[in-house]
Specification:
4 copies of one chain form a homotetramer. With about 400 residues, chain A is α+β, with helices and mostly antiparallel strands. Helices cover about 50% and strands about 10% of the residues of chain A.
Amino acid sequence: MNTKKKILNDPVYGFINIPGGLLFELIEHPYFQRLRRIKQLGLTYLVFPGAVHTRFQHAIGCMHLINLAIDVLRSKGHNITEEEADGARIAILLHDIGHGPFSHALESCIIPNHPHEELSLMFMQELNNQYNGKLELAIKIFKDEYHKKFLHQLVSGQLDMDRLDYLRRDSFFTGVTEGVVGSERIIKMLQVVDDNLVVEAKGIYSVEKFLIARRLMYWQVYLHKTVLVGELQLIHFLKRLKHLYQQNKINIDNKYLKFFLDDNKNKNNKEILDNFSMLDDFDFVYLVKQLLNHDDKIISYLANSLMNRKFPKIIIGKDPIPDNYIKELKLKTSKRFNLSSEELEYYVFSGEVSNNTYRVDDERINIQYGNKLIDIAEASDMLNISVLSKVVKKYYVCVPKIILNKD
Amino acid sequence: MNTKKKILNDPVYGFINIPGGLLFELIEHPYFQRLRRIKQLGLTYLVFPGAVHTRFQHAIGCMHLINLAIDVLRSKGHNITEEEADGARIAILLHDIGHGPFSHALESCIIPNHPHEELSLMFMQELNNQYNGKLELAIKIFKDEYHKKFLHQLVSGQLDMDRLDYLRRDSFFTGVTEGVVGSERIIKMLQVVDDNLVVEAKGIYSVEKFLIARRLMYWQVYLHKTVLVGELQLIHFLKRLKHLYQQNKINIDNKYLKFFLDDNKNKNNKEILDNFSMLDDFDFVYLVKQLLNHDDKIISYLANSLMNRKFPKIIIGKDPIPDNYIKELKLKTSKRFNLSSEELEYYVFSGEVSNNTYRVDDERINIQYGNKLIDIAEASDMLNISVLSKVVKKYYVCVPKIILNKD
Amino acid sequence: MNTKKKILNDPVYGFINIPGGLLFELIEHPYFQRLRRIKQLGLTYLVFPGAVHTRFQHAIGCMHLINLAIDVLRSKGHNITEEEADGARIAILLHDIGHGPFSHALESCIIPNHPHEELSLMFMQELNNQYNGKLELAIKIFKDEYHKKFLHQLVSGQLDMDRLDYLRRDSFFTGVTEGVVGSERIIKMLQVVDDNLVVEAKGIYSVEKFLIARRLMYWQVYLHKTVLVGELQLIHFLKRLKHLYQQNKINIDNKYLKFFLDDNKNKNNKEILDNFSMLDDFDFVYLVKQLLNHDDKIISYLANSLMNRKFPKIIIGKDPIPDNYIKELKLKTSKRFNLSSEELEYYVFSGEVSNNTYRVDDERINIQYGNKLIDIAEASDMLNISVLSKVVKKYYVCVPKIILNKD
Amino acid sequence: MNTKKKILNDPVYGFINIPGGLLFELIEHPYFQRLRRIKQLGLTYLVFPGAVHTRFQHAIGCMHLINLAIDVLRSKGHNITEEEADGARIAILLHDIGHGPFSHALESCIIPNHPHEELSLMFMQELNNQYNGKLELAIKIFKDEYHKKFLHQLVSGQLDMDRLDYLRRDSFFTGVTEGVVGSERIIKMLQVVDDNLVVEAKGIYSVEKFLIARRLMYWQVYLHKTVLVGELQLIHFLKRLKHLYQQNKINIDNKYLKFFLDDNKNKNNKEILDNFSMLDDFDFVYLVKQLLNHDDKIISYLANSLMNRKFPKIIIGKDPIPDNYIKELKLKTSKRFNLSSEELEYYVFSGEVSNNTYRVDDERINIQYGNKLIDIAEASDMLNISVLSKVVKKYYVCVPKIILNKD
């Protein structure tokens, strides 16, 4: 058993101390090491070439930030036992362990019934078994069942270490410097009142700037049009793949993937985790390359599209796309490529996208004025916080570029 | 005449190219070199020790940014002649040349009838004389009398190079990293429509972030309580100094300062400029030190306060301070220090401060959507722009700390 | 044909302008896009988690730096036509296009007769065909057959843009900040004398620092012990794979890889390039995962080692490892794991490594003093330049960790 | 007594925690606050406009670094009591407290018999009196009389926190980025062996880079030609000032300065410190401005030279300037300006400068290999360490520029 202290180099924070003991072992565990092979931002690197950083780096960064936060809170007189600190460290280290590669795509096609949060919990419980119950407290904190609620809020909340790390890290690697968040400065302003995480009054401007930076990252990076089309193509690719596989029209070599493509209901959790933990970005890029010339014209169309970033045109706007227009596009496309109606679904498709995954929900960011707490939405005279919490829907239709060219 | 190209090292932008010819000579001119001896942020360094950067650095930085902006606009197909470019460069280089040391303090006491904008223009006109009319175009641009209005707007407007530099530079040197503005990125988004400066649609998030960062800098740095009290003490110090001087109760050695302390009306512009250009931060710090033990108890009280950063307590809030309360404080103070009513004015004083020097005024930041221009206040669903343009008044009273201690 | 200008976000340099025309098309070409899927530093990310940046980013960065260098040289009065500039840009953009994934490993096992420099040239020639001879000048510059030798030296020489980019980029992503090189500052000091690239006198300290930084990166990053063992394991993995494949003992699905595993001599260049351009990091990580439980104990041992970073112990030093000692290790290992002598080669192996790929060769860095040129080795009284040019050999033996544990 | 914790913003390191108690009070003490008014690099800002940072910032930065170092050494198992830690913090905080403004100039003219190290110690002893002996341990550490020698070495040694801070800070503010030193990384490599500070083996490359960066800063910044001439002019200015003052030919208002200009031998230490602590950069710039038009042509010549950066030409080289040549220059100058031989000394003067203040002296940087210590000079095969320790002398002569123009 390796208990020595380790130091990691991180491009964002410099040196990061890796504690010994259980935390070190969890990092070394194959379940966790898999995160080295999953890009934090999926296909985003097609638009921002620097965005090839991994979920591994992010998870380690979160652990680093929670260490800073624990130090700050302790220095302000809050008692946090070493056991609680370890619980929080483990909870945030593992909070994304259930993330699949290109997560949204995968979640909808490959393991449709297990959202990544649930998988993360399954992994934690399995690791708890493997380590004889030593993750109990971490799981409690993760599930918000521990009485010191602020520990959960550091892991998951409006101003958690997850967001503080990913905004900073994603802006660092994409090169979108406006997204940079002064994580360290916000952490210095944290305070605990009645077991809840709040921000000291003088931190309000930093919180405003954090919210603005977050919004900027959504629209400039996370919901970038090209990334969106790319993900839709990948979803279609996987859908077609599953279809062909289940009809025995395709030969797939990948045993871990096959485990999920088979609609066999009797899969126990351990099997799911073990196979899932062998899937990462590499499997899907590999598949795309192998199917570039497959006989099925749909799968090869999609593979080529993904491989060469030749994506359909996306028309996107605040208003629903008129049905007539979609019909017209479908008609043209169907003629042009000689497609059956089933095939057509892969060439012309419409839908809606919203920022609701990033919605400001019930939890609030409380700002501490003397011994009053005021929600940021009220405390800030500058921000329309309501805008952040609003679900913005956008409607789109995708269609091969050639169809839109002048006749 | 020196026409060789020079390169300066700037901590903020790295290398800065200094053009030869007239620009180089203006930089070398004693009027401009004086800016090396004037801190950009006056007494702010008492709170943020790094904030000792000078107006010289800022002016050079502005010139660097306007060069970038001119390159960007030219690359987008806008014709800017080299003469126009030089005009804009000179205008921004000299835009602050009339700034006095600890500017607000000085402006109100020493040369009350010449706000710094006017002095800047007087300097430019004098330099225009000295250089045989070569600053004509620069002056036109500075006064917004040139038909290509965007050149003036680069020098002075809602999104001018002045603000882009000072926000970035001040946050750099204060260490308040949240104030950092992606100047280079905003500049890349500039565009000209009908001779007016606008921002391309995709730049809207950067503009939002710029406005938030600016606000943050006001409240965290520019209007910092301690800096405010410090400036008020300095104003009182100068007021008392003038009073003593005019009553022959003090011996002042500084000939340039005496020129201004004499209320002799017959001062011609050239004399004003020549004497003004010899005043800088050094004169006032020197005076403070020499008067620490002066017989007049007021001046020595103020000198000691400034020297040792032992400032009175400032009570500040959104509501006017009740007269009764002020009276009570005055009474206590007067007793405690045995003060005449004239002297008392230097110990207890009240007033109001507002951010209206930073007010968003008539000029707008226009965002370009296709061929429509929309004001940021409308285009942004996120920001309460009205808040920025609102004059926020705060009321304060200052009183020696000891008076507020428990009796 | 797309000729519009594009701007890329780069974490290292900020905005990078992508020229339109041929350069844009080359970047879009599948041959070049492959570099998005090849990590710049192979397995280094196992030690430095941030080092997941790609050869794509590096190639774009080099193009950016050569643009800066061309601007600097032009501003110093050197005539560089736009055609020549494009030639240099293309040459450096494509200088690494022949790099395989995990390059050293691959080069030795998969395409043993084509070092990557040769493959790069083959790619350029093929692209020259595809683009009707428009790469002629670029190829001339690449091969150092153009009379303005400095253009070649910008692409490949002691102080070329390749090194200036990779040192800076690699230190940025590994987080080893001591390796940071002031690329922009060195470029400002470049000069051309008699068609050769030299450095102005005042740049000598920057060059010294560049050489020190480079050396530091070799020993701290490029030749890191763990990375070295990792690469050796990968080489063994591929060697075993080829062996099993040629004996029909393994089923391989990857058609592009099979092209190279077959020792069929009749492969034409176009085929080689087309298949090679489909191989990248993803194929090998995929293979490793699929073979974790293969029947052949050697291949599964190696796959597990690579997958879980459970590498053998490496003993490394300046002196050759005594034969006796190696024999002893082999004996113990063979007994312990019950291995045939052929199998043993995969468990215990020795060799030597040297920094000679980084050797300072005949080309010199000339420093310009007035109108004399002095080689850095002479000009610098500080550095033992001879050390840099010296081939440092280290000897190693690798052996399963368990063998070294106390008996 | 104020014991609350304070946080300072530092542009270089971000937040710096200021401990409460004695350290806080020492920082607030007027003796220490004076350092706010002394630029770290004297006249260097005339060449590098950003170099206006103060000795105050540097001293605080040193205290921050020593805190990091103490944390690192404690985490490696070395016992450092809180009292010892405070001693080391105080010693480094005050190590430069005796530095005068434009130090070399002042030391030679104004208080010739008290080098700044001695003054620093006098200040510490006086503060020790004022604080009832609480600085005893700090003084012991400062004087290297404490048995844990590494504490002194952190304050003053080959790799002390002083150098780690000033190199980093000076390169930050001058914008000479090649001088940047990875202070934090070196500190992580510190170790203590037999009560002496050493560096772990893997830190050797960082130490090499530190030495190279230091050398670079000397030649590019600290010994910059223009800075050197500026300082020589200032020395002459002060020499002339003293001369005129002692002959009653000048009226000086500055009481603190007069204390030192009087050659009255009966000055006790307390008086010296109190007057010295009132002298800073401001006094000398003030004087220069007031004497621009003084009747004495020498003092006004020097004042104008300093004010407008119109320095004489400096001819500098490795060989002594031939006497004949100097004579010739003197003859020409004397004629041209009609000077007495006494006056001539202020127009043409020669001398030598050496880097011996920066000499590598007896103390060594020891690198720890296993349980052997090897000096960096031996351990590094890369650096000619002897070069660093060598006293490099340069010879110069200064002469008005006009004298060198073609006749």
